[in-house]
Design brief:
By secondary structure, the chain is an alpha+beta fold. It is built from three helices and four strands; from the N terminus they run ααββαββ. It starts with a helix and ends with a strand.
Amino acid sequence: MTKILKSYFYWTYPRGCFHYDVLVTLILAFIFVTPHIPGWDFGDKPPRAAGPPHPIQVVGDGGRGFIVTVQATDVNLSLNTTASNMAVKKALRKAIEPVTGDAVAVERWETFQDAQGNWTWRVWARR
């Protein structure tokens, strides 16, 4: 028994023999079974990016940039407060970042109610 385990450890069997096939089967079983065992994920799963709960609409602005429409509930800013321009730009940029990327500059914005009566931000931005 010790001789067999030692030869398995040092992989001394030629291709095509029974013991070689057992080793390959054990390796493949390890590869395909361990991700499904709780606690054996090895921490290599990619993090899930938290996207916005509502759809974001992006349209071109005639070559000057783009116009992004985002629900007010997706922006971490209250419409009732009087925030500084920098705070509004920062909150809007963070809200549209999942769609536009992080290299975007917010130029101007406005709020309006859409057809369903939800408050919405319209943001003009450029790269």
